[in-house]
Design a protein that fits this description.
alpha+beta; four-stranded antiparallel beta sheet; 38 helices
Length: 898
Amino acid sequence: MNIWLKKLKALLHDPIHKQWVMWTEAGKGLKLNAKRAIHIDKTDHSWHEIVAEELLNSIFHNECVKDDEIEKADKLASAMSRIIVAPNLSEEERKKYEKKSSIKNFTEIKFIDAFSLKEKEIEVTLEHYDIKIFFEELGNLDFKNKEERVQLIHLFLWRFLPMKFPWVLTHPADSRAPNHSIYDHLVQTSAIIPALPNPAFLLFTIGPVQEFISNARKTQDLWAGSYLLSYLTWKAIENIIDKFGPDSIIFPNLLEQPFCDRWLSKKFENSPLNSKFSNLINKLRDSFENYEKITIANLPNRFLAIIPNNKNIAENCQKTIEKELEELVRKIWEKVKNFANNSSLIKNYIREHLTNYFQIYWIILPWTKESIYDCDTILSEYENFVGKTEAYKIVKIITDHSFYKPSTVGNAYSLSIELTEKFLGSRKMIRNFQQISEQKGRYKCSLCGEMDEISSGIKDFWEKFRKENPGLIRDREKLCGVCLAKRLLPGIFKKELNVSLEFPSTSEIASVGLKKTLSKEIFEEFKDEFDEFKEILSISNKIEKSKIFPPSRAIPAFKNTIFEEIDGQWLMEESYRKEYLLKEFNLKIDNEDLKVLEGIRNFLKENKISSGKYYSILIMDGDEMGKWLKGEKMPKTEKLIHQNAKTALLAYSSGTDKENLEKLLCSEHPMSPSFHQAFSRKLGFFAIERVRKIVENNHYGKLIYAGGDDIMAFLPIEEVLKCAYEIQSVFKEILSPFASMSAGIVIAHHKEPLSITLNEARDAEKIAKNKFNRNSFCVRFLSRSGGILETGGNWHLIDFIYDLICKFKNDEISTRFPYQFLQRVNQLSNGKFDERNFKILKGELKRIYERKEAEVEFLERLETEFGAYVKSIKEKPFENFANILLIAKFISSEGKYA
């Protein structure tokens, strides 16, 4: 049988409205009608399977949902995602137990979100007629052949069932364990089909991550590093889903993922689906044609898939990445060969650097050696490699008390995943090593400092390249193949993705506060002055006017406005210096032209155009995400099963059985593929649909990447704390009220080397998690003079800080106040909290504040915040509080003074 037909039958082996069919009067009548309509004996079918078969027959006539392989896949998928257990009872008692543990009517059914523990009533106003018509419309389409029909309809249903019938994501697959949806159960069953008879997990990863991304001098370098990793991961995933379907990828979940939507769109392009369901197909195009989505590097550098136990599949994924890197080499060579005298040496260096830099690791773990019912082998292997952990004991209880006997290897999903991770970790310990050739006399890469630059001694290679690509390569900058690839990737992907890719400079970010308040009339006048300035430079340096400076790359919020036409650095007086123009743009200024520089500086002074000089980098990361993915943060099992099932378990068990089942109920629910997929969907929605809008629409920033819970953005200093607070609030809202994020924020001068600023931001994020105990932020202010201020705390502090900022802005607090208080702290504090110093410094805080009676209310708040803060911070509590005051004062000036 065609594998896609089997997958389609597996996807439809239960009706998508299963609980409605089973437990409503309308559903019961529907089953009788369906049985009569199909006209074949259905004595071996459950009632809901009859309705499922009718829907399948709407697409393919005379096909049956019952099949040995589908039954095996169904058992495995059920065991992986739900805990349905029973006490060890006699046959008579077991029947009573089954009746007691089941629901009594449709109104008792709830769906429980495993991450928030919110209960949702399932859809009662379902219209079977709408579902049937939808399936019949699919059945009436005329495809080229049966193979195309089954594959495209399967892909269509996988992608659009949740869009056409949104309730399928909260319609429980089983009323006794209503913590996973019928949709997730169906796609898992479908995913297992092509992997039979010997399914396995493939865990695949590509790196390095942090080193690759962090080697950056421009904002576009950061984006390019993260995006290339995301793109290469996708190309490996694409190799899997071409053969086995997107449902075979457990993590990350691909539903509504822009790369996957782009892949699907090509599949549907010339099919009858494209015309009949154009309203749905067009939403695919919105996903990958929309700049805001397709350019977000949101795929992690790893994936987990269900595949047949065949190492050729993983090897093909690796070869796919190698092929993509070779194609990247070709594209880079096309861009540099005119400056390289067609030297094959340079092309070879680029190839050697790119192909040897990335490290690919993978592990395939078979689920079983012989039978899907051989759960003991996994338990034994886990015991040997890991031990009899609590996770092991819980799975052992489940397999010993399985409701559906015998137990399957699906019951040990959580143990299998943990083993896969441990084996991959062991594999990484055996590092791949390939020597990258080095030659004496060649310079190291200016950016990473690790590999040789590629020019191979060809005279004027970089000078020629720089002249034809203004602003892309800095003066005296020489790059290796990897760093050159990052620098050229925005142009390459701009063509590949057919979207605009522009990255504002740090100077542009620093100037946002000024641009927001600058009148259009004044800016128009400045634009005329600046245009004349470029004209004179063009004549003096014999360069086309359009190539004098790199094109302005405004923040997204300024797109299609007058402010996008001139980069923020040209609103700063110090940019109009002879030495600066020569160093940064290789522009020579004649003595006669010095008057022009003076004139434009005078214009800025006379019109009080004074831009801020500081910007911020925000790095955010979900707290304890590894524990979430392992299931260590999951709720107790008793919270995720129906009350009837829990009551029956306790009522019908006794002795050791009862002790074991009580332990099961009070233990964290084991991780399942449904939880993995739901978790990944939530992270994907957060990253793709919400984060960019928060950063770019709400807070005038530029998102660099959002890989689920991992975020980097550039923001104006006056917006960064609000932005971080909003992001973590939305994260909790989408994922779970029990989840949290921490943030590292650095405020730095726009000319500070980006590599230094990035390292400080990453350190700040670690401090937020370690020093401030997660669910916190840490701010580091790097002054141009070299001093560093550091502070942070829990998210509730943000409101207090912004109240301080407002008061500084409105001159309601003396600008001397933070410095005077810090001076007293330095005189008294020994870096630790003690009650005596607390009382003295609280008095000093009140004395130095020196405000009129109208400010008594805020003074009381200041004292309250001071007391709560210093008692909650272990290291340098008084210094950290003084730094809050100093940083608030600095932000209030929008970075104009330091």
